[in-house]
């Protein structure tokens, strides 16, 4: 007779379950709600209604201060993770926030709003989020280290900005899916170490002045991004899904951004951005700056073609100490079509044939690792072959080249003798040879 399985842990008292949650990172603690009804009950938000806005010129200020006091009271203790549904009434309208706190001084605020309030998000009023408003002395907000703001509605704009202004010792900030938000300004911040801005599709301007910032991630449409005092920046991700609006592509803005990143050691960027720069006539080797500390470059795009290959080759000229290069093809990404440029920064140069492009690439003296992700081994496609050729010809201490397909099949590139070099590929069971015009060739050996 089969014994019935007993879930002894779920039957423990609620205070014991909360104690268990207190030892978990917040993300993992929230996942315990999937285990059973008892665990789920720990994450049923307590609905709390706070304050009614009065009338007069100070109504907004008073309502925001009262709302921040409520958040401060919620953060009174970090003994265990907790979720609350807070409802505020501001002069601009109602605000409902699902607030989740973790034991590591972490707070997630997910702003909920009705369809009517959703339409207000896309009003022509210029919306701004930042820490430029004067701080209010709110107990417990200064202890917060991690803040995640999601779907900030227009009616909560003053509240969210005041919250940022009062979190003066914040280490990590994420702003996500804030539709209608036009501008983000983080000014004169010395404590912030990590900033993530993701999927705020209406953003027109991002200004960041944070002397201690180490990591910056931006995911969305290309817009004006101004990084000030970023001397401590180490890791930057520019995951760009296209250009904002229908205005002209501004080389000055993009080059100014790249110049402000010259201290970074790890950079992820979209391939189409480099293509647009080079199509507009930018020759990276003639720029007045270099990414002289960059050790790892990750190139991502929906496809690889000759223009993207050549623009990548051009960009490598400002990466003198590059050690690792990752080139990723992801067909699920949106394709960004390069426009025709009437004016040229330096001169148009993508019309050059590939041997000329290749000869202009400086030697990559420190490059030791290259990985091609998402490529296919196709007998009619010479792009992978030409990329390998370009990189091998300009490296000195290269230790490894790996090619991985979408099916997670991997190949290693190895040097093989070749008496009859040819420009074609040939297949022999598990081996694909990349033959080059020299007295040896390179083969892709399937890794099984």
Automatic annotation (TrEMBL):
Organism per entry: Rhodamnia argentea
Domain of life: Eukaryota
Residues annotated as domain F-box: 6-42
InterPro entries, alphabetized: At1g61320/At1g61330-like, F-box-like_dom_sf, F-box_AtFBL13-like, F-box_dom, LRR_At1g61320_AtMIF1, LRR_dom_sf
CDD domains: F-box_AtFBL13-like
Protein name: F-box protein At2g39490-like isoform X1
């Amino acid at each position: 007779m089969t014994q019935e399985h007993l879930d002894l842990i779920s039957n423990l008292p609620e205070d014991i379950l909360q104690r268990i949650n207190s030892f978990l990172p917040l993300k993992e603690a929230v996942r315990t709600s999937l285990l059973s009804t008892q665990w789920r009950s720990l994450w049923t938000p307590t609905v709390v209604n706070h304050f009614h806005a009065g009338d007069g010129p100070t109504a907004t200020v008073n309502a925001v201060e009262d709302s921040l006091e409520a958040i401060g009271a919620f953060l009174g203790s970090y003994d265990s993770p907790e979720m609350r549904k807070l409802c505020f009434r501001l002069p601009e309208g109602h605000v409902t926030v699902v607030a989740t706190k973790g034991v590591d001084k972490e707070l997630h605020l997910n702003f909920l709003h009705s369809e009517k309030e959703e339409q207000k998000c896309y009003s022509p009023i210029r919306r701004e989020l930042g820490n430029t408003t004067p701080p209010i002395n709110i107990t417990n907000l200064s202890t917060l280290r991690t803040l995640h703001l999601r779907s900030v509605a227009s009616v909560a704009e003053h509240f969210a900005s005041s919250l940022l202004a009062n979190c003066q010792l914040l280490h990590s900030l994420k702003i996500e899916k804030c539709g209608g938000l036009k501008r983000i300004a983080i000014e004169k911040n010395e404590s912030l170490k990590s900033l993530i801005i993701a999927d705020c599709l209406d953003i027109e301007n991002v200004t960041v002045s944070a002397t201690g910032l180490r990591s910056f991630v931006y995911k969305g449409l290309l817009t004006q991004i101004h990084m000030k005092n970023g001397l401590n920046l180490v890791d930057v991700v520019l995951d760009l899904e296209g250009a904002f609006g229908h205005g002209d592509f501004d080389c000055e803005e993009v080059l100014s951004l790249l110049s402000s990143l010259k201290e970074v050691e790890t950079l992820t960027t979209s391939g189409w951005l480099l293509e647009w720069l080079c199509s507009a006539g930018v020759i990276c080797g003639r720029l007045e700056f270099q990414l002289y500390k960059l050790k790892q470059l990750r190139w991502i795009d929906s496809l690889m073609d000759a223009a993207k290959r050549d623009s990548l080759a051009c960009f490598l000229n400002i990466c003198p100490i590059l050690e690792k290069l990752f080139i990723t093809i992801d067909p699920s990404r949106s394709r960004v079509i390069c426009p025709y440029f009437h004016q040229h920064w330096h001169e148009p140069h993508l019309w050059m044939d590939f041997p000329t492009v290749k000869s202009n690439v400086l030697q990559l003296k420190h490059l030791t690792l290259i990985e091609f992700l998402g490529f296919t081994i196709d007998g009619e496609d010479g792009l992978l072959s030409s990329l390998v050729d370009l990189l091998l010809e300009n490296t000195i201490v290269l230790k490894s080249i790996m090619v991985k397909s979408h099916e997670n099949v991997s190949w290693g590139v190895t040097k093989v003798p070749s008496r009859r070099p040819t420009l074609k590929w040939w297949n022999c069971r598990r081996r694909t040879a990349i033959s080059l015009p020299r007295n040896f060739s390179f083969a892709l050996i399937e890794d099984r």
